[in-house]
Specification:
Strand content: 5-15%
Oligomer: single chain
Distance between the termini: 29 Å
Order of helices and strands: HEHHHHEEHEHEH
Helix content: 40-55%
Strand order of the largest sheet: 3-2-4
Number of strands: 5
Length: 234
């Protein structure tokens, strides 16, 4: 990877972003204490499709490639789950099937999520309930649980956390995530590099090859262009 390339800069920036998030969320966990229910095996935030950024997708793709080099069988199982998930999601996916990018239609997106609310994330390991690419998980997965402030918005805690806690107690535990806008700046650079904007879902990020976030292979045809017709390959 060339040191001055977009991939290198985004990779270094993403490392910084994950450190910033980790520090903030460690503080959130410290404040929450036993009121935070997040544990391995809890899959409250792992069921149902949800939007992720192109930066999240880029991170997941890189992590899957790294895993394939170390443990090709495990990586193949993850991609197989992603392909199987797409076979179920593609017929009414509210976006572009070639790129995996969601259309900017909140109503359609919400209806899609509701219809598929029982669809497990492809990264969810069925036996343990753990995330198979935990270190590369999307930002929304990282921030789900404690009360946080992100991009100027106060997000509520997971319904399994802070049960019976009064509002003032929840607010006292709130932390601000990424106050300097590191994610926003990285996402802008990535979108400019790949000449694509928008959000996608985890299944597309893992199954599409190439994906728009693959900077060096952008604009090549996708093998999943016929996904809506059920012709997904292995």
């Amino acid at each position: 990877m060339v040191a001055s390339s977009p991939e290198h800069r985004i990779g270094k920036g993403d490392e910084l972003l994950l450190r910033v998030l980790s520090e903030a969320l460690e503080e959130a966990a410290r404040r929450a204490g036993p009121r935070l229910a997040c544990r391995i095996g809890c899959i409250e935030c792992c069921i149902g499709p949800f939007p992720i950024t192109l930066l999240d997708a880029w991170r997941l793709r890189n992590a899957l490639r790294d895993l394939a080099a170390r443990d090709p069988e495990r990586a193949a199982r993850i991609r197989r789950r992603a392909l199987d998930s797409l076979a179920r999601l593609a017929p009414d996916f509210p976006g572009d099937l070639r790129s995996g990018i969601l259309h900017p239609d909140a109503t359609a997106e919400e209806a899609f999520a509701t219809r598929h609310e029982s669809e497990p994330c492809p990264l969810l390991e069925p036996e343990s309930g753990a995330c198979e690419l935990y270190d590369a998980r999307p930002v929304s997965c990282r921030t789900f649980g404690p009360p946080v402030r992100l991009a100027g918005e106060n997000l509520p805690p997971c319904r399994l956390c802070f049960q019976d806690s009064p509002a003032e107690e929840i607010e006292a535990c709130r932390v601000e995530i990424d106050p300097d806008g590191v994610e926003e700046a990285l996402l802008l650079e990535l979108e400019q590099a790949v000449e694509t904007r928008g959000e996608t879902i985890v299944a597309f990020a893992l199954a599409l090859e190439p994906f728009p976030t693959d900077v060096l292979v952008r604009n090549q045809p996708s093998p999943l262009s016929d996904a809506a017709h059920g012709s997904l390959g292995p």
